[in-house]
Amino acid sequence: MTTKPAAYVQTENTNGLLKIEFFHPAHNSLPGDILQKIKEAIDEAGQDESVKLIELRSGGARTFCAGASFDELVAIEDEQRGKAFFMGFASVINAIRKCPKLVIGRIQGKAVGGGVGLASAVDYCVATKYASIRLSELAVGIGPFVIGPAVQRKVGLSGFSHMAVSPNDWQTAEWAKQHGMYFRVFDSTEEMDAYIDHFSKELISMNPLALKGLKKVFWEGTDHWDQLLEERAEMSGQLVLSSYSKQAISAFLKA
User: Which H, E and C letters describe 210-250, residue by residue?
Assistant: First the structure.
């Protein structure tokens, strides 16, 4: 029997670029412990003077992030646990928002649900042509409430609305680029990584105070997100307990 590789969050600092890489054998889905580790890694990087720039990435080649862990979703039995689970996504988004360092997103493959939220929350995001996106939450009886502010901030209300009410429709990487989520789309992972290597070195050579100031400007008007995302997590935590959601999530796990 082949043993599945273990989930992890690992970091590597190379000349001021801190790579935060997460992995989960279930298509890089995100259980609560992985979300907490990502959040802590971002917080630590923000306070580490040796870190000039952060790259958020996932392991593997086919999927950037499949979103929430369905195993954890189906196990939620009360509103408190439901809210706590969705606060995991809220905490990562807010950690990126508050971090004084710029965060680059490296999207090598498909992003679903919470994965789209991460791609939207970073300050500068690049992807391969295989990095199509989908907001699948409505199909399982909830909605992209916690990640919604981050997604809407990047693709606009119209783009977000289209994705939110079309949970079975994939949008291409080119669509994401046209709508402002991705800044560049590459034909291969190798081309993307070469660009990130060159671009990150350029950024690291620039005035860190100016970069810090830009980060602050980029996130103007979002100081209320601590409260907003907590309210959204509460909404999701309630909805995931509905009979519709329970049945839909169970059906997905059996498929």
Answer: HHHHHHHHHCCCCCCHHHHHHHHHHHHHHHCCCHHHHHHHH
Q: Which two tokens stand for residue 33?
A: 């412990």
221: alpha, beta or left, given left = phi > 0 and alpha = psi -120 to 50?
A: left
Phi, psi of 150 (to 5 degrees): -70, -45
End-to-end, the C-alpha distance of the chain in Å comes to 22
Helix 79-98 with 114-121: angle, nearest 10 deg: 20
Whether this model's pTM surpasses 0.90 = yes
> Hey, what domains does the chain have and what are their CATH numbers?
8-190 (3.90.226.10)
Structure token pair of residue 72: 């954890």
**CA 97 to centroid of chain Cα atoms:** 12
Q: Hey, how many other C-beta atoms are within 10 angstroms of the C-beta on 62? A: 10
Tell me the per-residue pLDDT of 141-183, one tens digit each, with 9 for 90 and over: 999 999 999 999 999 999 999 999 999 999 999 999 999 999 9
CA distance linking residue 67 with residue 83, whole number of Å: 16
Cα separation, 10 vs 22, whole angstroms: 7
Q: Residues 124, 154: contact at Cβ < 8 Å? A: no
Can you read off the two tokens belonging to residue 22? Answer: 């997460």
Give CA–CA dist 45/8, Å, rounded: 17
| 68 DSSP assignment | B
Rounded CA-CA distance 54/39 in Å is: 13
